[in-house]
Specification:
single chain, alpha/beta, 2 domains, 5-stranded mixed sheet, 11 helices, elongated
Length: about 280
């Protein structure tokens, strides 16, 4: 079943009637609860009233424009969705529209992960019911800010470049060895130059393009490193971290960003190590 924005208007409008007497003071600061099961192209939602009854269900395209059409101007709602690829921008968009957003931790949400009735509509209903009866059951996480996410993308992109370079270097060395030759030992920074000179003539047509890719990646990684140093200046916390022997801008910035640049998340310093799996 697909519900239109107009149907959602009608369903949620019924929840805005003020309560009388003492009940008014117990009314939560939202008039409906929504479970949003996010898909890459399409997301399913389930809307509950304050009594926990389903008042609307449907699907919406996983785009900012479609979410705005569906949820803008509908009054404040509590919306629950699982953490994933789209959850950062979706949560920020929904918060900007005035809604309360709960981003559920999928690692702890076993009711969905281990459910025998695993499909989008059922997952949306379950998210909505959990958000209605007890938000703590979702083990909600705190999404990163847009800037933190962008800066962390730089760290991750650099890591992809480093891993790709390592795979190419290992592949080139292995193919040369398989022909009875051996490339000279060298640090990664000078690998392209030395490998070009030492590459067997029979393998040059196959390996020189890869060796040129290594040099390109090396140059790109150096550019990433310069950007990381610049980003470190935007996070004063990294200065103290870099006073530790062997810790540079890359490690310091990655540490701050992975913790979402929010030291208040941890009451004890030892909790940080547990969070990072140390």
């Amino acid at each position: 079943m697909t519900t239109t924005a107009t149907d959602l208007d009608v369903a949620t409008e019924r929840q805005r009637e003020p309560a009388d007497g003492d009940a008014a003071s117990l009314t939560p600061p939202y008039h409906a609860v929504v479970g949003l099961d996010v898909g890459d192209r399409q997301s399913h939602y389930c809307v509950l009233d304050l009594q926990g009854d389903v008042v609307a269900e449907g699907a919406v395209k996983t785009t900012e424009a479609s979410l705005r059409v569906l949820f803008e101007g509908k009054g404040r709602m509590r919306i629950a969705l699982e953490a994933g690829t789209h959850s950062p921008w979706m949560s920020r968009s929904l918060i900007a529209l005035g809604h309360e957003v709960l981003v559920a931790n999928p690692r702890k949400l076993r009711l969905i992960a281990e459910s025998d009735a695993k499909h989008d509509r059922a997952d949306a209903r379950l998210l909505a019911r959990l958000a209605h009866v007890g938000p703590a059951l979702l083990s909600p996480i705190r999404p990163r800010s847009a800037q933190t996410q962008i800066d962390l993308a730089l760290i991750r992109a650099r890591e992809v470049a480093v891993q790709t370079r390592t795979k190419i270097v290992n592949a080139v060395r292995g193919m040369v060895k398989s022909t009875g030759h051996r490339l000279p030992a060298s640090p990664t920074l000078t690998f392209a130059r030395k490998a070009t000179d030492a590459c067997p003539e029979a393998l040059q047509s196959a390996l020189l393009p890869l060796i040129r890719l290594v040099q390109t990646l090396t140059d790109d990684i150096a550019a990433y490193d310069r950007l990381v140093v610049e980003n470190a200046r935007a996070y004063p916390e990294t200065q103290a971290i870099q006073t530790i022997h062997g810790v540079g801008a890359l490690t310091a910035v990655a540490f701050v960003l992975v913790l979402n640049n929010d030291r208040s998340r941890f009451t004890r310093s030892r909790d940080v190590g547990c969070y990072l799996g140390l």
